[in-house]
Specification:
Blueprint (H helix, E strand, L loop, with lengths): L1 H22 L13 E4 L8 E5 L8 H10 L10 E6 L2 E8 L3 E8 L4 E5 L4 H10 L3 E6 L5 H4 L2 H8 L4 E4 L9 E2 L5 E4 L2 E7 L8 E6 L8 E5 L2 E2 L2 E2 L7 H12 L7 E4 L4 H11 L4 H15 L7 E2 H7 L8 H6 L6 H13 L4
Parallel strand pairs: 6-7, 7-8, 8-9, 13-16
Antiparallel strand pairs: 1-2, 2-3, 3-4, 4-5, 5-6, 10-11, 11-12, 12-13, 14-15, 16-17
Helix pairs in contact: 3-5, 6-11, 7-8
Amino acid sequence: MFASAWRSVATSVETQLTATYFRGSSSNPKLLLRSWRTIPRADAPGFGAIRRRFLAVPVICPSLVKLQKLRKVGFRGMHSTLEDVQLEGMEIKILPALQDNYMYLIVDTKTREAAVVDPVEPELVIKTVQEQQLTLSKVLTTHHHWDHAGGNEKLLKLWQKELDVYGGDDRIGALNKKVQQDDTFTIGGLHVKCLSTPCHTTGHICYHVTAQDGSGEGAVFTGDTLFQGGCGRFFEGTPEEMYEALCTKLSALPDATKVFCGHEYTLQNMSFARHVEPDNEVIQQRIEWAKHRRASQDPTVPSTIGEEKSWNPFMRVHEAAVQKHAGGATDPVVTMGKLRKEKDTFKA
């Protein structure tokens, strides 16, 4: 009985805090979203700046803060803080969703035109677009799974303005711009190139975004194909296809390209990477860094293509140490398949 009453109180608090934020009508400024602020990222020289947002709760109710941390409620139940990443010609707004998903707003800093990647929680997308006075014009869907494409139709209904919905699979909700390998389009002045990466699903697309003049690092949005330290399960594909995706197409991008993946899986993936290469110091360093980030619920994205080549076993299938762990075969595709099969049942 007591437990039931406590759950009722907790749910009520969560509902009121969330509703207050989304109405944007509170007379108490301490309940509203604080403004964006820029903070340096000391752990990654040259990375640029990250901007973070926080939902403040009244200081007169410290127990509510503990309650939110205990139930992982926070703002909209977010698993991570909201952050901005500044790149050449663009900014990427990291929007946590569901239990461990990430949505992303890609913003052309010059025109303020924006596109959203995998908007599974459209309310947060719309709130952010309106607050930042952006022009949302496009939806970039990596694949058809509900936790990535499940918000498309609701977003179109709530937004009530024309949106181009891109994707490579007819199973994607609200799809009206089907794309394939090497198709291109723009977000304001930003250039987007589509990379077909079937395996996790047959119609999976990664989106490579660069400044109009090609300068700067650029970013790639990899959905469930490439994760930090890992890759997606082979639900609808083969080791050959994942090898092509990771070791041919994505590996060909500039090493400085920022990788924005679909889930916060870094610690789990890096644990497996350490299991595969226990003597790889880069992996252990990244684990410690990621533990520090997650202790304060900060996202571990993005990494870079170059970093993934240094620690991700699925992008290191040519390495002797990785091949030895996978049974000694020198064929990288065979190694890819054996690693994925082991990872499917791996317990950290």
